[in-house]
Predict the 3D structure of the following.
Amino acid sequence: MARHLVLALLFVATFVAPAPAADAYRIGMSVAITGPAAGIYAPAFDAYKVYFKRINDAGGINGHPVEIMFEDDRGEPSRAAANAKKFAEGVILIVNASISPTYKPLMTEAEAEKIPLLFGGGVCPKEAFPPAHPLIFCSTSFGAQWDSRFAVPFIKAQAGGKAKVGFVAQNIPVSQAEMEFAEKLARELGLETLPVVVVPGGSADFTPFAAKLKDGGADWVLSWAPWPLEIGVFEALARIGWTGRYVTYAHQPAQDDLARLKSPNLFAFGGNALFTEALPIHKEIESAVKGQTSHPPHYLVEGWVSAMVLEQALRKCGWPCSKDKLAQTLATVSVDTRGLRGGAIEWTADNHYRQRAYYKVYRWDTGSRAVVPVGGWTRLDVK
Amino acid sequence: MQAVAGVVVLASLYVLLGVGYVLVYRASRVLNLAQGDLMMVGGYALFATVTTVSASPFIAVPLALAVGAAVGVLVYALLMRPMAGHPVFAAVLVTVSLGILLRVAVVLVYTDQTRYPLPAMDFSNPPVRLPGGAAVSALDVVTVASAAALLGGLFAFLRLSRLGIRMRAAAERPLLAAQRGIDFHALFALSWALASFAGALAGVLYASNVRLDPSLGILGLKAFAVALVGGLDSLGGLVAGALIVATVEVLTIRHVNPLLSDVSPFLCLLLMLLVRPWGLWGTREELERV
Amino acid sequence: MAYGSGYFKTTYEADMALVDTRLRRLALATLIVGLAVLPRVASPFVLELVTQTALAAVGALALNMLTGLAGQISLGHAGFLCAGAFTVGILTESVKAPPLVTLPAAAVVGGLLGLVVGVPSLRLKGLYLALGTLAMHFVVLYVASEYQARWGFNTGVSVPAPTVAGVRFRSGVQWYYVLVAFAMLTTFLSVNLGRSRVGRAWMAIHDREIAAASLGIAVARYKLLAFVASSVLTALAGALWAYYRSFVSVEAFSFVVTIEFIAMIVIGGMGSTLGALLGAGFVTLLPYGIDAVVGALAPGGAAPYWLFPLKFGAFGLLMALFLVFEPLGLVGIWRRARTWVVLWPLRYAPLRTVR
């Protein structure tokens, strides 16, 4: 009997919707909180929670609280679409921190309802790059083609002009396309290249792929993929005794693994300053999220930067802020990241990625037994 | 030579996982589709003991393995024993839901973040040079040794010890065994404990050697295909199957197409099903012709 | 179902009718009218949920035909969905084929795949069959991901909205009608198959294959028919899914999807059309139901982290509970409830009944 009551309750409760707050900025966020990609994107959920709770506790923006509807999409397009439809009733912005299969349904819905869409953690879709779609914005630190445009000359400079470079990609289109672009770029710069090694993401053992690179004679390897693959291939290379240098994009776990592996051959480059630099903003984030997240503080940086951008946009938008006004305001933001990135994030009507991309490289220094930067920030102008 | 070393290491991992399938299938004719998740739980048990109880590998590892075996017994008592008498398909589905539950439990406690127990144990994983210019890691060697030791131990146990012989008897003819006074529920629980122990061993080694995250269970499906190629109720067949599938996988990565690596165990399985469905050394009785 | 009194049909037509009593006819009419009117009163989100349930129902009905009726265990359901969806994606992308070409093509591809998987089923039984279908699932996904790997930025293949007879199907309301109609047609097909010679042959094969063969049932033919019918329907569901989402990617067809469909027919009740429908609705709506319950109990504030894995794991837990405690599923509960209502205040049927 109890079972039936519970089931009936569940069925009826489906149609009960919570009442929205009338005078708040309403934002919808579709995040991969669970599911295979959750390790990468769930921290963005925590970041937004903590960031906007802080703001609301301090009185909100322009005197109004920010209300965020969090929905888990598990990295599935169907759920992302259902989330978007749920948000369609009254939000002025949708934030997405999830894997790329969820992009298209969200973009379709955003276009249909004319709601701006902010990508704050996943790889930036090409609609955010110039010429940008009016509704699509991206604050994520890594971006296709620009990362390679930094990394390949970096390899050439470090190698002293001559090197044999291998490339590692995951079997997802963004990663494969990027590494093929990087390989072409390397050949144009006069480096010797090996064909791109594509690795299935769920592989138990990366050793055969590492063996391919080692046998090919690579002395440098560039990798641009989700972190587990990037670091897994490096570890496999180290296990089979490869002594070359490995350059890879520094996703969130980077500083932990640099410190864990203690290898001077691993170079991690990225758009975010690692928390090992202990800047004031890092300390601020660490104290703000203490006790409120089960992830290490440095995992929240992508979400935090994205939240900073959103905060500035909402402040600039004023009140009342409609979705059209917000879309226009977003196209004019210039956000001081206070050291989290190499410089400000500036958007224009044409460029919703950033005007300038900044990169910094880190490695483990055996002498000082710490993760140290290799040089300062390098700036690339995004046209 | 590197390829050969790679094959042996991969085959050992498959053997460690496959032992669980074979033991449970032999005893109770149930396909334990949660074996991969039991491996994951073993890895997390190691992580838990390392971070909370003791960082010494000599304490943490046996403790993690004991926890793994205990989980196997619990699973049998709470989930599989009530399913006695239900159709086998239902029992298999219960193991599937068990896998989901194990995964959810782990994610609730440890989130989806990738973990690395090895540094906490103050152990490093240096490469070991082999003749011919190949190299494997120290833990790879331990994996191969463990797989061999486990197999040897199981052979001895099942063939020589009284408990092992009773297990084989209960697996072959439960009714006769019960009439002879053998408590086959206890023996089924023991087979589940051994299966879970083997899975936990695989999990401990993999977590230390590579990484630990909640999605490790997917390896269990590949090992499943391996167990089937060898014959679901034969440990010897498991070794042969593991070597064959590992060879196919490594060769396809090197010479054919790296993307086929995920699917090559299943291609072997399909081939086996068409040619010799009961596996290399399995028993034929499961088949009925139409 | 027990009757409070005897209930006898006097004509063949009355006996064969799908909807026999006046109450049932009234209920069916109400349901149809309700479904037709729903878009006017419900929010787009609720409509989306109902649409997803309808699509899931088609998949569940197809799986029920194969596993519930004919007893052939299939772990490759997601593979059939993927095949149908990718046929649409590939044809639309490469030759710009219209829906009137892609949908039959998806059905044909699904049928061929069902044949390919069905032939080994003649030799394999039970668990070996399940594994063969599992292997097929991975192979199909591999082929699809190879194709997908050639496509640019956004992971997956874009499918533009279909145009049939000059009508462009883009809006949520249009797709609601299309998919609900599809689900109703499939329900009709499933119920009739169950009552027909084919359905009875399947059930006979399910119960005892050797006995069925000795009764003169061509076991091989009916087994293959089960596979092909199920896979054609599933591929069509996958094709419609591709058009509905206007996007196809391999990640949407992981093994978890197969588990979800199996959970649908297990929780709903294997072998029963109503069970497949109930199960589909239950599994699809469960996460949202949990959401609503939690939202009602603890309003305000962001959802706690543990809620999300819980929603994911809830259907696994429920599947286990149903398997252990209620093997007949939701249909079993429904039938018990119905019998209770009909027989009240008595507990047992006073007469032996025909049904």
Summary: Residues 42-296+306-343 of chain C form a domain with the ABC transporter involved in vitamin B12 uptake, BtuC fold (CATH 1.10.3470).
